[in-house]
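Lab meeting, item 3. Inverse folding demo.
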């Protein structure tokens, strides 16, 4: 059964990878390292050190592979960027200056 993991950076399907993820695993599409804080179940932007695991050592770069023993891959790690505001601004500029909309 597939584990339904996706890359934290590009959203690529990671079903072909074997769990547990190793420190050296990379996304087959964008080559992002996968044993990273951003891909972990304990990663949380809204807590101190961005980690809910109280005894884990702090990792400064949340997008680089690390040796954290508490790492567990998170299924919802990929968050698509919201580009709607930028697209609306481009459309308004195109209308204003006679470009295509």
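The presenter then showed the designed sequence:
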């Amino acid at each position: 059964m597939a584990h339904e993991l996706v890359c934290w950076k590009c959203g690529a399907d990671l079903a072909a990878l074997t769990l547990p993820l190793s420190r050296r695993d990379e996304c087959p599409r964008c080559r992002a390292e996968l044993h990273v804080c951003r891909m972990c179940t304990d990663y949380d932007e809204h807590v101190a050190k961005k980690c809910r695991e109280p005894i884990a050592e702090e990792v400064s770069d949340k997008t680089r592979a690390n040796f954290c023993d508490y790492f567990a891959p998170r299924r919802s790690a990929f968050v698509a960027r919201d580009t709607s505001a930028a697209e609306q601004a481009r459309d308004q500029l195109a209308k204003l200056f006679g470009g295509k909309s």
